[in-house]
Design brief:
By secondary structure, the chain is an alpha/beta fold. It is 44% helix and 12% strand. It has helices at residues 58-70, 90-107, 127-144, 154-159, 163-176, 203-216, 231-238, 255-260, 273-276, 278-289, 293-300, 303-310, 318-328, 347-360, 366-379, and strands at residues 2-5, 11-14, 34-37, 74-77, 111-115, 147-150, 181-186, 221-227, 246-249, 268-271. Strands 3-4-5-6-7-8-9-10 form an 8-stranded parallel barrel, surrounded by 4 helices. Strands 1-2 form a two-stranded antiparallel sheet. The longest helix has 18 residues, at 90-107. The N and C termini lie close together (10 Å).
Length: 384
């Protein structure tokens, strides 16, 4: 049995389920391209308090990426899941990119890396400075040997006064790219500063700007990652993309139907949720590779309730749930996070993650998960 606790302090016990017997793939995943956005692991005894420079446990951080690669998934690194703009400073970001690129090359693992402007300390800069900042990180990433996800920039959101400003900045940055990149549209749920990204709070208007940016440089855009938590908007944009530009869903609420697809097509995936659900994501795509859509739905469908809990409002604290599950599953020695972000979710919130992870089989080592969870309950003053 495993103990749960609610907001009133009441405890209950549920049966601890066995882990699913998923098999790692013996060939590359074929029917979908899937990236899991990986988190970072702090050094347990370091001074990773709010405002302090990130001090990472590199062995555990890189081992987690190898865990994802071992399941046939690609890794999306230095993204918001890795606490960009929420604790991962510029120096740690640079080192993460360099180290991850080297590790990916050593095993032939798929890797894309976030490029942003967040190494610039000034809150407000000119559009020309935004272009220069993007190019700085773009060249660093390409020199390391990684492919690029061009992330939404807070600096650009502050500096832009029109959709045309977005078009200008992206045109100049894309012209400097040595290979096609993935564009990232991160919605206000993940970062409130980006609520009017691409020039408008209206999704249809912003979509038109995004599509114009792609149309102006079709050979420089490999795909779009949409993280708006709006499945209809994603399908609408997906339907207007021309091959070979692909849609990578970043919708952690609705990924099952978006990846599974329908008569209008399907989305590939670049998801923070899949950092917590690597074995499930791999097994589900293996089922699609075998033409077994029912098995895909049976494997991945039950995980969506867990993902919705991890990404519940305030959504930008989802990293806490991802790191918490990583700890429960034995991928890191401690439950702490860079910037003290492990304190961003309550004990009842984490308890619900435990319940849903147990329900869908996301506890990879159930006995270890129970031991660690009960220990956390105990030191928090809850008898387990």
């Amino acid at each position: 049995m495993i103990t749960l606790v609610d907001a009133a302090g009441r405890t209950s016990a549920v049966e601890l389920n066995a882990a699913p017997s998923f098999a790692r793939p013996t060939a590359p995943l074929a029917s979908r391209t899937v990236y899991a956005a990986a988190h970072v692991v702090p050094r347990t005894t370091a001074d990773n308090v709010p405002g302090a420079p990130a001090d990472l446990d590199w062995d555990a951080t890189l081992a987690f990426r190898h865990h994802l690669w071992s399941w046939g998934l690609g890794v999306a690194d230095a993204m918001d899941t890795a606490q960009r703009n929420m604790g991962l400073d510029a120096a740690a970001t640079r080192e993460l990119i360099t180290r991850s690129a080297a590790e990916a090359q050593s095993v032939g693992g798929g890797l894309v890396v976030g490029v942003n402007t967040d190494h610039v300390d000034d809150a407000v800069i000119t559009l020309d400075a935004v272009v220069d900042a993007y190019k700085h990180q773009l060249h660093l990433t390409e020199d390391a040997g990684a492919s690029v996800v061009l992330m939404a920039s807070r600096h650009l959101a502050r500096a832009a006064r029109s959709a045309e400003d977005y078009e200008r900045v992206y045109a100049e940055v894309l012209a400097a790219a040595g290979a096609p990149v993935i564009l990232h549209w991160l919605g206000a749920a993940f970062d409130p500063e980006l609520g009017s990204y691409f020039g408008s709070p209206d999704t249809d208007a912003a979509s038109s700007t995004l599509l114009k940016i792609i149309a102006n440089a079709p050979d420089k855009v490999a795909g779009v990652k949409m993280s708006l938590l709006d499945a209809d908007s994603e399908r609408a944009v997906r339907g207007r993309l021309n091959a070979p530009t692909r849609m990578f869903t970043g919708d952690d609420f609705n990924y099952v139907s978006l990846i599974g697809g329908d008569s209008s097509g399907y989305s590939d995936a670049l998801l923070g949720a899949f950092a917590a659900l690597g074995p499930h994501a791999s097994a589900a795509v293996q089922a699609l590779d075998a033409g077994d859509h029912d098995a895909y739905q049976r494997i991945l469908g039950p995980t969506e309730a867990l993902s919705r809990q991890i990404f519940s409002t305030p959504t930008f604290y989802y990293k806490t749930g991802v790191a918490f599950l990583s700890w429960l599953n034995g991928h890191q020695p401690g439950v702490g996070m860079v910037g003290g972000l492990h304190a961003a979710r309550s004990l009842p919130h984490l308890s619900e993650i435990v319940r849903l992870a147990n329900d869908c089989g996301a506890l990879e080592q159930p006995e270890l998960a129970r031991e660690r969870w009960h220990g956390l309950l105990s030191v928090s003053g809850v008898p387990a």
